[in-house]
Amino acid sequence: MDIRVNMALVRVHAVIHPDANPDVSNERVVDLLWEAKSLGLSDADAGHSQPPPMFVGEAELTHWWEDGQGLAASLEEMRLCSSCHDGTGHPCPIHG
Ligand SMILES: [Zn+2]
């Protein structure tokens, strides 16, 4: 699981190099959180409803993965919503 390994590397690097630029580290963490969200979305499409076991110990990764699952559910709901597909090209008030 590349996301989890890379998150561990970022954490270790921050400990080993406490004087390193924190913005670079934070930017990398944000990238990994977005990757976790994207994985949650694709896992939902693949029918996986449990977060990757290796996310244990990184609550933020799990949280963002769950966000991805929620996004997948919302997209599926919109896909099935007839009001979102009324030909106007705009989502209905509920999903807009
Ligand atoms: Zn709708």
TrEMBL record:
Q: Which domain of life is it from?
A: Bacteria
Q: What is this protein called?
A: Uncharacterized protein
Species in which this protein is naturally found: Noviherbaspirillum album
